[in-house]
Design brief:
This is Response regulator transcription factor. Keywords: DNA-binding, Phosphoprotein. Pfam families: Response_reg, Trans_reg_C. The strands form three sheets. Strands 2-1-3-4-5 form a five-stranded parallel sheet, sandwiched between helices. The chain has a four-stranded antiparallel sheet with strand order 6-7-8-9, covered by helices on one side. Strands 10-11 form a two-stranded antiparallel ribbon. The chain is built from eight helices and eleven strands. Strand 1, helix 1 and strand 2 form a beta-alpha-beta unit. 40% of the residues lie in helices and 20% in strands. The chain has 217 residues and is an alpha/beta fold.
Length: 217
C-alpha cells in the first residue's frame, strides 16, 4: 500500500510514517498542502492521511482536489477538533474517514486498511490463491498451512501480486507501489526481492516471470 502522510507537525508526521512502514506500507511524507498536491500529482496513492489544518494550502482544498481526480485516492482526514459538526463537515468534503487527534496508532492503521479496502475493484481482507494465504492486517502469510518467514518488503510484494489477481505487474509498478520516494528508481531491488521471495514460497513455484512484462501469481 502506498500512503502519503500530510501533517504540518513534523514530529507527529515522522512518527506516523515510522509506524506505517513497520506495518509494511510504503510511506511518503510532506508537511504542507502545497507539497501534498505536488506529490499527489505524480504518484497514485492508495490512501492520503490528511491533516485538515495545513499551511500554504488548506486541507479542505487538498481534499477537494483529490476528490476531483478520476482514479480517486482514499482520504483519511485528521484534525485537532473532535466535535460532531467538524466531523460531519470533514466527511462532506468527500473524505472517506475522519479521525480526531490525539489518536491511537493501532486505530489509525486499522482505519487506513479499512478505507483502502473501499477501492474499486475492492480487495478482500484476506488474499488467497491456491494453498497460499495472506492476511494483511495480521501480517501473516502461509502456504499449505505453514507460516512463511518473510521480510516486510517480501510480504508487501507478495501482497501486491496476490491483490492483482493474476494480472501481470511490471517491476516499475512494484517499485512505485511497494517502495517509497527514498528508493533509487534505477535500482534492481525489485528483482532482488523477488529472487529472495521465490524460494521462501516453496514448490511448485508461485511467482511467474512474464518476459518484457513483469511478474504474476
Amino acid at each position: 500500500m502506498r500512503v502519503l502522510v500530510v501533517e504540518d507537525q513534523a514530529e507527529l508526521a515522522d512518527s506516523v510514517a515510522r509506524v506505517l512502514r513497520r506495518e509494511g506500507m510504503a510511506v511518503d511524507v510532506v508537511y504542507d498542502g502545497e507539497g501534498a498536491l505536488e506529490r499527489a500529482s505524480v504518484v497514485d496513492y492508495d490512501v492520503v492521511v490528511l491533516d485538515r489544518d495545513l499551511p500554504t494550502v488548506h486541507g479542505d482544498e487538498v481534499c477537494g482536489a483529490l476528490m476531483a481526480e478520476p482514479a480517486r485516492t482514499r482520504v483519511l482526514m485528521l484534525t485537532a477538533s473532535g466535535t460532531i459538526a467538524d466531523r460531519v463537515e470533514g466527511l462532506s468534503l468527500g473524505a472517506d474517514d475522519y479521525l480526531p487527534k490525539p489518536f491511537a496508532y493501532a486505530e489509525l492503521v486499522a482505519r487506513i486498511r479499512a478505507v483502502a479496502r473501499r477501492a474499486q475493484p475492492a480487495v478482500p481482507p484476506v488474499l488467497v490463491r491456491g494453498d497460499l494465504r495472506l492476511d494483511p492486517a495480521q501480517r501473516i502469510a502461509t502456504r499449505a498451512g505453514q507460516r512463511l518467514a518473510l521480510t516486510p518488503k517480501e510480504f508487501s510484494v507478495l501482497e501486491y501480486l496476490l491483490a492483482a489477481r493474476g494480472r501481470v505487474v511490471s517491476a516499475e509498478e512494484l517499485l512505485e507501489r511497494v517502495w517509497d520516494e527514498a528508493t533509487d528508481p534505477f535500482t534492481t531491488t525489485v528483482k532482488a526481492t523477488i529472487n529472495r521471495l521465490r524460494p521462501k514460497l516453496g514448490s511448485p513455484p508461485v511467482i511467474e516471470t512474464v518476459p518484457r512484462g513483469g511478474y504474476r501469481i
